[in-house]
Amino acid sequence: MDTYESVLLVKNEVFVFKIPPKTTNRGYRAADWNLQEPQWTGRMRLVAKGDELVMKLEDKASGELFAKCPIDKYPGVALEAVTDSSRYFVVRIQDDNGRSAYIGLGFGDRSDSFDLNVSLQDHFKYIKKGQETDEGSQQQLDLSFKEGETIKINMKITKKDGSEASRPRRTGGGSVGLLPPPPGGSKLPPPPSPQHVPTPATAGTEWGDFNSAGATSQKPTTPANQQNWVQF
Predict the structure, then answer these.
(1) Residue 93: enclosing H or E segment and its boundaries?
(2) Do 9 and 61 meet the contact criterion of CB atoms below 8 Å apart?
(3) pLDDT for 189-228, tens place per residue?
(4) Is the sign of the CA dihedral 172, 177, 183, 187 positive or negative?
(5) To the nearest 5 percent, what fractions of the chain are helix, strand and coil?
(6) CA distances from 148 to 103, 144, 154 (A)
(7) Among 26, 48, 74, 138, which is disulfide-ready with 120 (CB 3.0 to 4.6 Å)?
(8) Half-sphere exposure of residue 6, counting CA atoms within 13 Å on the CB side?
(9) What does the DSSP 8-state code read for residue 220?
């Protein structure tokens, strides 16, 4: 996939100065340069291509490249502000062979240097945000249960009228659904023994069949309490 160049900032007039070597660790001072006699005057373009950022110094009329400065971070060694002014910077330029040199860069107005600072900061914030998004998308969220891990869910059952229904609780270790006997319950008395009803003696053989038949068809008298027990 091709990556297109994006021009972040253009300033049509910038000044390039020859700077003396830095002799102390306090930083560069623009007052040490010959500000009245710049070595070169031209156009500055800040160009981004993907994550790469390059400051290009070009001729205003022909667009011919004078020098370029790759910038990998800001603030950094590629572009460093001086200690005594907000309009001047020390720029590390590089050629195609990797050789580098340091020059002074200045703007005629403070608003131009302010625009440069804002463009640089916005670019690297954008790059950082993109990197964080890519790292976050590569991380996978593991929602699987670990060994021995359980989950507890509290569920409430709501009736149509809005009240909560209670579940029956099971108590004890016995069977469910059998009611215990009432305390102090009395057992029914056993039924009384039936009384024997004597059969009249047979008067003779001639009436014996009749007496036997009569004796057989006769129902024994049952006591009242026996009838009640049978009915119960």
Answers:
(1) strand 88-94
(2) no
(3) 666 665 555 555 444 444 454 454 444 445 555 454 444 4
(4) negative
(5) 25, 25, 55
(6) 67, 12, 20
(7) 74
(8) 11
(9) P
- Cβ-in-10-Å burial (0-12, 13-18, 19+) of 36 comes to exposed
Residues 105, 117 contacting (CB under 8 angstroms) = no
Per the CB < 8 A criterion, the answer to whether 119 and 8 are in contact is: yes
Extract the tokens encoding 155: 């569920």
Of the candidates 72, 73, 77, the one whose C-alpha atom is nearest the C-alpha of residue 89 is 77
Amino acid in position 79: L
- Count the residues in the chain: 232
38-48 pLDDT tens trace:
999 999 999 99
Place of tokens 């400065």: 69
- State the 10-residue block means of pLDDT for the chain, 232 residues long: 83 95 83 94 95 94 95 90 94 93 95 95 87 62 67 68 57 51 57 56 48 48 48 40
> In 3-state terms, what secondary structure has residue 210?
helix
Task: Quote the mean pLDDT of the chain.
Answer: 76
3-state secondary structure 139-165: CCCCCCCCCCCCCCCCCCCECCCCCEC
